[in-house]
User: Fold this.
Amino acid sequence: MIRAVRAAVATSLVLSACRGGEHARSTRYDVTARYPHDPGAYTEGLVTGDGVLFESTGLNAGSDVRRVDLKTGRVLASRALAADRFGEGLTLLHGRLYQLTWKDSVAYTYDPATLTPGDSFHYGGEGWGLTTDGTNLIMSDGSDSLRMYSPAFELERVIHVRYHDTPLQQVNELEYVNGEILANVYRTNWVMRIDPSSGVAREAIDFGDLYPNRPVSADVMNGIAIAPDGQQVLLTGKQWPTLFQVRLHPAAAAAR
Assistant:
């Protein structure tokens, strides 16, 4: 617990540097659409494929992987995890859905059309966010590390995320968009634009005004997916009733 608190404090201090120069939060993106989202979904991962939204939800005895109609928010199909498993990040690679678990160090695969389970793979440590660059899987574990795995979960390399020359902890949900990794920082409204070759966070985008008047039932922001058009981004949170589609503006001057 102490370690987690220290990480959260360190992350807050690093990101507080952003607020000095960024006065108008919403200047970095435009909201282009709003879609219904299951307010009972404890969102841990989002990904789109063939016009369908796939979602991984968390909580013990409440985790599943599901196919969702983007425009209506209707759950088309779902497959529950075992009651003792906590679902985490989700991505789609080579025709297979990959879903992480939090503390069980197991990744499950599914047929995206039917959600029929396939192979499972083991990895070390915790599983948080998951995405792909089209070749490798990219996984976060709550630290400043991003691990690159082969589709068979063989570790290829590790990069460390830095913002203004400082390690950035609690990197969480991920999405690979147009050659960069978008990463939500856990328990914040910040999304980082990360260079996947170096780990340098080029920009921090504050989404604090995306959903400012949240009901008590809505938890933290979590869930990033590339929109079906391949250019815009979908964002939501744990138990949010709305999923937002946004268009990001070109990145500002790169951070070191």
In short: Confidence is low (pLDDT under 50) at residues 1-10, 17-26. The two ends are 31 Å apart (CA to CA).
